[in-house]
Amino acid sequence: MVKLPIYMDNHATTPLDPRVLKAMMPYLTDQFGNAASRNHKFGWEAEEAVEEARRQIAALIGADAREIVFTSGATESDNLAVKGVAWMYREKGDHIITAVTEHKAILDTCKHLEKEGFRVTFLPVDSKGLVDLDDLRKAITDKTILISIMTANNEVGVIQDIKAIGKIARERGVLFHTDAVQAAGKVPFNVNEMNVDIASLSAHKFYGPKGVGALYVRRRNPRVLLTPIIDGGGHERGMRSGTLNVPGIAGFGKAAQIAREEMPKESAEMFRLRERLRTTLERELDEIYINGDLQRRLPGNLNMSFAYVEGESLLMGINDVAVSSGSACTSASLEPSYVLKALGVGEDLAHTSIRFGIGRFNTEEEVDYVAGRVTEVVRRLRELSPLYEMAKEGIDLKSVHWATEA
Ligand SMILES: *Cc1c(COP(=O)(O)O)cnc(C)c1O
Questions:
Q1: Does the C-beta of 195 come closer than 6 Å to ligand 1?
Q2: How far, in Å, from the CA of 74 to the mean position of ligand 1?
C-alpha cells in the first residue's frame, strides 16, 4: 500500500533531499560562522562553504562562480533582476518586455516599475503557452533595456525557446533575463548556450531548503550591472547586502550538484511517470484536456482539465493527494488561473484543472494510485452531472436555452 497523503505538487516546493540536509547540518551546528568574518576560522569555514556552493550552482548552469549572487529566493532574484536593470539603465531606455504568463514576482515587479514611469510590454502567448518570436522582435524598440521571459512555466510546465529569445535580445543589444526556477536542475539549462544574461534560481524547487536563491549575473560579453534593491554592507559584490544564509547556501550547492549529476536519469524517470499518469487518465476518461504544449514541457508536469466536474468537488474527492488547481481560491472570489486564461482556456475548464507536479521522490505506485483516485472521482462526479449526460447524448450545450437566462 502507498503511504498517504501523497505529495504531487513539486512545482510549489519540493521536499528536502536527505543528502542536502546532511550537507547543511554542520553549518546549523558547530560551523556557525559568518561568511563575512575575515579574522578567524569560523568565518573562513563559512566562507569556504559558500564558495563551494557558488561553484556547484555555477556548474549546474554553465556559469562562472563569480557570476552567482545569493538572495533570499527567486522572488527576490526576480525583483533584483528587473528593478536592478531598470534602475541601472534608466538613462539608456525605459522599456521592458515580458510575457503575460510570467510568475507574479516578475509581473508585479513590472507593474511597480510602470508606476515609476517605465513602459512594459506584456507579450501574449499562443494556445500552447508559447511566446511568438515575431511578436517579440516587433516589440523591441531602441528604448528597450530588458527582456524577461521565463524558461519553464510553473503552472503548465511549458518551456520557451530560450536560446532563440536570447539570440534576438543579443542581436538587438538588449539584456535578457530568464526566471529559470522551474527549469534549472530539471532540464538542461546553460547560460552561454542559451544567450542568457541574468537568471533567477531557487533552492527549494530542486530539493534544497526554502528561503535561499540566486541570481546569475553575466560578467562579460556583455558585463551586466545592477542597481541593488537592498542597501547595506556591500556583500555579494555590492549587489545584495545582508549576512549570507550559510546553511541554506550549503544545501543549495549540494542540491545543485545532485541535480547536475542525476538529471539525465532523473528527468527520464519523471517523464516516464508523467506519461504513465497521462496515458492512464486518457485511457480511462473522456472529455479531458491537456493545458499547454505537451512536447515543450517539463518532464514532471501534467496540467489537465476535466470537463463536466466541479473543480472544488474534484479536489475534495482526491484530498489524500496534494496537487494544485487552476482556481486561485481567495476568500472573496474564485478567480481562474491567469496563466490558463492567457492560453485561452475557458473559465469552466480552468476551474476544473489540476496541476500534477511529479518529483524525485514520487513512485510508480503513487502515480497509479493517483490515476485511480482521479478516475474514480471524476466518474462519480459525472454520474451526478446532467450536463455530462446531455453532452453524451449528443446535445449541443451551447444551443440549450436555459430557464434561468430567460
Ligand atoms: C517558486 C517560483 C518563484 C518564487 O521563488 P521563491 O524562491 O519561492 O521566492 C519564482 N518563479 C517561479 C517560476 C517559481 O516557480
A1: no
A2: 5
Same fold, 6-11+264-399 and 18-259: no
Each residue's pLDDT tens digit, 42-63: 999 999 999 999 999 999 999 9
Tell me how far CA of residue 293 lies from CA of 171, 290, 301, in angstroms: 28, 8, 11
Would you give the DSSP letter of residue 141? -
pTM: 0.96
- Measured in Å, residue 59 CA sits from the centre of ligand 1 at 21
367-381 as b/e: b if 16+ CB within 10 A: bebbbebbeebbeeb
Residue 129 CB less than 6 A away from ligand 1 = no
Phi, psi of 97 (to 5 degrees): -120, 130
| Residue owning grid cell 515575431 | 134
Give the β-pairing of 213-217 and 68-71: antiparallel
- Predicted local confidence at residue 306, as pLDDT: 97
Question: For residues 288 and 300, what is the distance between their CA atoms, to the nearest angstrom?
Answer: 19
Q: Please, are residues 157 and 298 in contact by the beta-carbon 8 Å criterion?
A: yes
Sequence ranges of the domains in the chain: 6-11+264-399, 18-259
- Ranges of the chain whose pLDDT falls below 70: 328-333, 404-406
> In angstroms, how far is CA 134 from the centroid of its own chain?
24
Q: H/E element holding 369?
A: helix 364-383
Q: How many CB atoms within 10 Å of residue 12?
A: 14
CA distances from 170 to 110, 196, 219, 264, 330 (A): 21, 9, 15, 29, 41
CATH of 6-11+264-399, one of 3.30.1490.20, 3.30.160.620, 3.40.50.2300, 3.90.1150.10: 3.90.1150.10
Atom of ligand 1 nearest to the CA of 102: 13
Q: Strand order of the sheet with strand 288-290? A: 288-290, 301-306, 353-357, 324-325
- Fold category of 18-259 in CATH: Aspartate Aminotransferase; domain 2 (3.40.640)
